[in-house]
Amino acid sequence: MIKLLKQFFRIAFYYVILFAFWRKIFFLFNQRNQGDFHFGEIVAGFFHGLRMDLSVISYLLVLPLVLLLIPGKQEWKGKLSGYYHLILAFLITLICMGNILLFHFWGGLINYRALTYLSDPQEIFTSLSFFQSFLVVMSIASVMLFQVFLIRKFLPIRATEELIIQPLHRLILLVLMSGVLILGIRGGWQMLPMNESLVYYSKKPFLNQVAINPVWHLAYDVRAAGLTDENPFLTMPEAEAEKIVHQLYASNKDSFPEILSNRLPNIVVLILESHTADVVASLGGESGISPVLEQLMSEGVSFSNIYSSGARTDQGIVSVMNGWPATPYHSIMRSAEKSARLPSLPKIFNEKGYATSFYYGGESNFSNLNVYCINQGFHVILEQEDFDKSTPSGKWGIDDEHVLAKQLGDLAHVKEPFFSVTMTLSNHEPFEVPGPARFPGDDEANKFRNSAAYADACIGDFFRKAKTQTWYKNTLFVLVADHGHLLPKHRNDLYPNSRHIPMFLYGDVIKPEFRGIQITKLGGHHDLPGTLLPQLGIDASAFAWSKNLLTPGAKNFAYFQMEHVLGWMEEKDWIAYSYNRKNYVLKNDKTSHERNTELLHKGQAFIQEIYKAYNGY
Question: Domains in the chain: how many in total?
């Protein structure tokens, strides 16, 4: 009996050390840009995280407990136990390594959305340099080889240990160890079972993220992601949530200034990969990176308080094209059935007799983009395969300058009016762009600055050539980023300033008296359809989640999310609330408790209704 208990706890201790090892690697790899931490608060993260580690380990030990207690020869049980632990070691290694990389690039822990990207495994390695890819593969292989050694030497039930246990002792062990595992799974005697609030211990978000066990977080996130049609964000009666959302968009029927001299212009939309406001000086960012955008914004109609609701390109495209805010857990672009039912700008312009086109220098199977574009009704869809093989390209695809040049060349032969969209890609990890370095340095921040400056220069060249085209004077240009970015300032993705992005209208079709104005209304880029279409005399009521930023009565609010975290902004007040913790993750400390409660109530109504709408498509 004592031998059996020793074997059982030896297995548990192995997993404790394994999770502590990965927690240490996570901290070392990602802490550089998260601030300064003293030794005591770092160590505290390991102790607080141990509670969640033990919860995961308790789940993992159910099968080993059964194997240890059931009668039978030890040889077959030893082999089965060995294979079980090898599979677990491999899965834990992949999850923990993935968690490290995802936090580095996305600023968040591994989640359900990350699993959906496994359908595009090439994207994972495309985001890494060759050295990074090599290092990841070698690290996984090295850790697995070491774990194989440990598992074979210490963990499986040994064939030579023919344990004879009396039935009464077996029953006692079953009851005792089942109680221990249940207690471990719950995380203790407290009323509520294990949740992230039991692990959070610091006012510094990064330390709490270090403490969270990535296996537990992923499993919880998958469960909460809505594998059924249940709404995990249901917090109030439907009638109340509907009333709040209706009030948020009530101004859409108000009057607004007409800023265009022509209601039938060509429309050219440039969606700029990762072009955060932090690299646009007039939006509070660094100077010298985006001089072209600065100049264009100063001559157009600029929206200075726009925040991306999501943090991925597939979320950004549907925000701009469909007026659809980012949905927690799920990408509506990846669902062909749901995205096909969304109202969209290309569908509207097709009905109005426009020629529609979409240009992207990468592979269109990314995030189901090709299916999405077809379902939105684009007449022409051009991707990497449509370019000559000799066209210069980076890891993600054709360089921006050549994609924009292709769009320009094609538009010269398209009958007006037309609606043409280009999605840039050069400002994406690993930030490798052609030409001399505008911001020298191998650190990621300067590489990001350099790729953003390259994209800006490509836009400058595009407009210099566009102004020579006959269609130019009758064209409205829309420039907007698909989402913000953590770089170059190493932002935390839970803060709203990581989502701040440029969005503006430009062109000779804008009346002179409106050129150079700045609209300070707070909103998101999913508000573009609701703002643009009324200027063309087109009914935008189908875009229920898109407000008209040019109506004086438009409500000042912006929504953002990161899976289980709801972000809500009004004026200078904002909150970030975790549905996992049932508490605020971050908030403006200068805002009163009553005001934060008000913001949370509106945000909860919004996210409840947008998730209900997602399930309804």
Answer: 3
